[in-house]
Structures are given as structure tokens and as C-alpha cells.
Design a protein that fits this description.
Layout lengths: L2 E5 L2 E3 L5 E8 L6 E8 L6 E6 L6 E3 L7 E6 L4 E6 L8 E9 L11 E2 L3 E5 L2
Parallel strand pairs: 2-11
Antiparallel strand pairs: 1-3, 3-8, 4-5, 4-9, 5-6, 7-8, 9-10, 9-11
Length: 123
């Protein structure tokens, strides 16, 4: 089992930067592919970014390419989402997710989830 806890959300102005963290408990963190999803009010949960268990491959939604960066620090059992030049449409609850090995951008492919952290972009 893997337990995930997100942190770093908050209220920021358009154009600002924010870094989200996801701390994982349990063994074999280095064998888990990690991902970030988000859900805005009235909308379906959508894929944001993922990083392979090996750390040598990443993928991003078109809406965040060039602005967001996903990374991991296996020594700290932590995954990060660096958000830059944020926009109002980035406002959502952000969720961290994990799966054993493999790759994927679909919600159903991830069995482990955090409880989410709120990001609000407003002037």
C-alpha cells in the first residue's frame, strides 16, 4: 500500500509560481510511476502530468506544457509539481496519484490517490 499526502496549495495571482509536493509513505517508492490530476468545479477530473518510476520519462497535458514541471526525489519519497505563469483556468483541486511500474495518463490506471490540495488563481 502507498499513502499520499499533497501540500503547497493556496491562493496566488495570475502569472505567479507555486510548487506542490506529494509525500509518499511505504516501501519501494522508486518502483512507482507518479502523476498529478486536477478537478475544477463542475468539471471532470483531468490529467496534468506524470513521471515514470525510473525518472527518465515525463508527459504533460497540452494545457500545461511549457509552464508546469513534474519531478521526483526518491531519497525523500516526494514528487513535485512546479507551476509557473499560472492562469485562472489552473484553479482546481490538485491530486497526486501512484501506480506500480508502467505508464499512463488515465485516471483509472492509478489505484493510489491523495486527498488533494486546493489551488486558486485569482487577482
Amino acid at each position: 500500500q502507498v499513502q499520499l499526502v499533497e501540500s503547497g496549495g493556496g491562493l496566488v495571482q495570475p502569472g505567479a509560481s507555486l510548487r506542490l509536493s506529494c509525500a509518499a509513505s511505504g516501501r519501494s517508492f522508486g518502483s512507482y510511476t507518479m502523476a498529478w490530476f486536477r478537478q475544477a468545479p463542475g468539471k471532470e477530473r483531468e490529467f496534468v502530468a506524470t513521471i515514470k518510476w525510473s525518472g527518465d520519462s515525463t508527459d504533460y497535458a497540452d494545457s500545461v506544457k511549457g509552464r508546469f514541471t513534474i519531478s521526483r526525489d526518491n531519497a525523500k519519497n516526494t514528487v513535485y509539481l512546479q507551476m509557473s505563469t499560472v492562469k485562472s483556468e489552473d484553479t482546481a483541486v490538485y491530486y497526486c496519484a501512484a501506480r506500480f511500474l508502467g505508464v499512463g495518463t488515465a485516471e483509472y490506471q492509478y489505484p493510489y490517490w491523495g486527498q488533494g490540495t486546493q489551488v486558486t488563481v485569482s487577482s
